[in-house]
Amino acid sequence: MRKYLLLFVILVTFNSCNNADCALYATGPPITYIELVDSDTGENIFTSGTYQYSDIEVINDNNEPVTFDFINENDYNIIRFIPYTYSNSNTVFIKLDDTINIKVTFDIKKIETECYTNYYIENLVVENYPSELNVNTGLLIIKV
User: Fold this and answer.
1) What sign does the CA torsion over 33, 137, 128, 91 have?
2) 74 φ, ψ to 5°?
3) Number of domains the chain is built from
4) Mean pLDDT of the chain
5) Which range is least confidently modeled, 12-21, 27-36, 65-74?
6) Is 99 exposed, middle or buried (0-12, 13-18, 19+ CB in 10 A)?
7) Contact residues for 2 (Cβ-Cβ < 8 A; gap 6+)
8) Mean pLDDT to the nearest integer, 76-99
9) Does 133 score more than 60 pLDDT?
10) 143: three-class secondary structure by DSSP
11) Which position has the higher pLDDT, 10 or 29?
12) Is 126 exposed, middle or buried (0-12, 13-18, 19+ CB in 10 A)?
């Protein structure tokens, strides 16, 4: 009987879920990368010097600031923002001055598994400027 009990304990031990492996699958918060280009020339408006990083304001539709970074590397100037997954707001406004106010709407897809919860941005729409999403890189290019 002891042999069967020992065998049962060993089998349960090796077949149990190992939560240490769960961290391997977590993707972190959803992130959106945006490049703003001149609609006439196609040139990045920060690389050209038309606008500066300090001109950027990103807020949601509740007028709350949205966390964002400005990536300036080798004349590759893009905005990276992380929408709040706990917020009811799925709209952000990227403001540069009194004339440029870009409205971006999106959905956040939540996927829950035994080990983790991941969030993904879907249905990214720019309502008041032409844009294109590069599905290979995830970069949203907005023409202002």
Assistant:
1) negative
2) 55, 50
3) 1
4) 81
5) 12-21
6) exposed
7) none
8) 82
9) yes
10) strand
11) 29
12) buried
